[in-house]
DNA sequence: CTGATTTATTGATTTTCGTCAATAGTATTT
DNA sequence: AAATACTATTGACGAAAATCAATAAATCAG
């Protein structure tokens, strides 16, 4: 069974037939820097698995971009809210650099659930992880000062700091660009 | 099939045998006001469905209680982070009043998934709803002033305001008790 | 019912961080 | 390489809400 990609690492219970079935339904896609994978107003069609590159998810409010997450290699991403609810997304997902990913459409995923019930479990686990990340983020943000939030990001996801702009990081950490700039000045 | 309880309302795809199997694995439990259903430091064992009463989920930080959610009749609740990860919970769940609930243990739930694969889908949907609520909460919190957050709670979940104390509501809305008190003074 | 303890209100002060504004630095285009 | 347009830094100021502190009201225990 495929080894090159870590995509099944977290789903050891999947049978070979499920894996094969799953892989045959994946589509490999490449993106240049700044391309939109998912767009607000449209129902999110795909679940992505990043092989190379990076992306950010963001939405717009008061003419401003609010970054809600960054996706790096080896991670799944979609506009989960829309992907789940089948309602129009308020999120955009754009690549921060040239990227390569696998993707599977929502329809295909539902078919997979019918043909290979184990895959529903794998999806459930992706959802669980998504949930946990969101919950940790929420708690993490609640008690930390702007400075502490930045230091934690540096500690746990330094690659994000390398790949994203000050503006993206600031909105992700829920502070103004100026505040972030001042924090960086006196690390 | 049972009609009294709305527990299956959102899962119309469940077969009668799944429903019967599920119901036979539910345990009915009653609580007085202030009882702990789940406790920090312990792995969350149960998923609850509230028939009557209300509860709040909270964790402790800096000697303070931070309320993360309220559960009313007809809603599911657990310390989801722990229930998912099987790691010790940092959340507590306590009843706000005399309550009645169904509950199912994590082990039983996993067995159900084996015997009635459809139930895994129902669980997935509970998880999805949990996720969506959390995400909406996060965005909701980000752009609203203290006053607006309170007004929205009044609009969408007025029962919470009736049943919870000012302290609980304030921490849930991420503001000080004093601020909430002042907001209430001049509605 | 009464005293004690917890919960809520109101006022004064402080702090953190956002906004506005000017400047500097980096990229991108021609 | 010069011109233009983003992106980042730094300073001055102000606003929202936190903290500290003192009462007041409500709840609970005996």
UniProtKB/TrEMBL annotation, chains A, B:
SUPFAM superfamilies: cAMP-binding domain-like (SSF51206). InterPro entries: cNMP-bd_dom (IPR000595), cNMP-bd_dom_sf (IPR018490), RmlC-like_jellyroll (IPR014710). Residues 10-113 form the Cyclic nucleotide-binding domain. This is Crp/Fnr family transcriptional regulator. It comes from the Bacteria.
